[in-house]
Amino acid sequence: MSDEKRPEQQQDPPGHTAPMDPHPKDAMEGYEGRSLLTGKKALITGGDSGIGRAVAVAFAKEGADVAIAYLSEHDDAGHTAKLVEAEGRNCVLIPGDLSDEEACRSAVATTVADLGGLDILVNNIAQQRPVESLDEVSSEEWDATFRTNVYSYFWCTQAALDHLPDGAAIINTGSVNGLRGNKSLIAYAATKGAVHVFTKSMAQVLVDRRIRVNCVAPGPVWTPLIPSTMPPEKVASFGGQVPLDEVAQPDDIAPSYVFLASERLSGYYTGQVLSPIGGETHPG
């Protein structure tokens, strides 16, 4: 985590890493792998930047080959590929709009074809937009948010199940907002609540195949999603309410995905929502 101050700043969606001030810590520098994922093949949606990038690099350091699906941020995706390849692992880049069913199915098929299989699926893409009231949320925006944040998880998971071996892992990205709601991120919070329940339901469905389905629900994390979706003054104060520190970096969150991907570490975990939220507590 970091207490480094952020100036007011804003980008157009979907956001890029290079203009961010300060630059997020997302390359897992100093992280030493222990061969926890040797020989595994992973697909990470939204793997071009932020949490997805840090997860891709961490997986590579643990011995996995990685495919990253992303919208159109080619510069970020290319940099992530270089970080993965620097660890001696293969990286496949798959651009496309995963709010479309065929793009999701194609991303899975490309991963299997180019990497030779699929052992770990990380559903990670998301979009959000702060609002002052429900009246500001159109039906079109509500639908688009669910198509990106929930439907893509459904489509990618459904397609992946034709290829994942028994004992594989699926990890979904949730959010603290799906645990407690958020009055300014109504659609986003609703999708993340759906992701949490989808995780628990799929864990029950796949228990006979020992495919572990878990979720990581982070608190505030400094990624391109923030300056590309929030007004400048909220970017500057983002994460200020976190008890433990100010705001997490992608590097702080990625080890949770390694834990849930590794049979050695989390073989008895399925249907769980792991919450790296910086000390915020919730009843239940």
Structure description:
The protein is α/β, with parallel strands linked by helices and 284 residues long. Helices cover 37% and strands 11% of the residues. It has helices spanning 50-61, 74-85, 101-115, 139-160, 177-180, 186-205, 232-236, 250-261, 263-266; strands at 41-45, 65-70, 91-95, 120-123, 169-173, 212-216, 273-274. The protein has a seven-stranded parallel sheet, with helices on both faces. Helix 2 (74-85) links the parallel strand 2 and strand 3.
Tag the structure with descriptive keywords.
9 helices; alpha/beta; 284 residues; seven-stranded parallel β-sheet; globular
Write the layout of secondary structure elements.
Blueprint lengths: L40 E5 L4 H12 L3 E6 L3 H12 L5 E5 L5 H15 L4 E4 L15 H22 L8 E5 L3 H4 L5 H20 L6 E5 L15 H5 L13 H12 L1 H4 L6 E2 L10
Parallel strand pairs: 1-2, 1-4, 2-3, 4-5, 5-6, 6-7
Helix pairs in contact: 1-2, 1-8, 3-4, 4-6
Can you give me a brief rundown of this structure?
This protein is an alpha/beta fold.
Q: What is the approximate shape?
A: globular
Order of helices and strands: EHEHEHEHEHHEHHHE
User: What structural class is derived from the secondary structure elements?
Assistant: alpha/beta
In total, the number of strands is 7
Radius of gyration: 17 Å
Helix content: 25-40%
Could you describe the largest sheet, including whether it forms a barrel?
7 strands, parallel
Overall pLDDT? 93
Q: Calculate the terminal CA-CA distance, rounded to whole Å.
A: 26 Å
Largest sheet: spatial strand order: 3-2-1-4-5-6-7
What low-confidence regions span 5 or more consecutive residues with pLDDT below 50?
A: none
Question: How many H/I helical runs?
Answer: 9
Q: How large a portion of the residues is in β-strands, by DSSP E? A: 5-15%
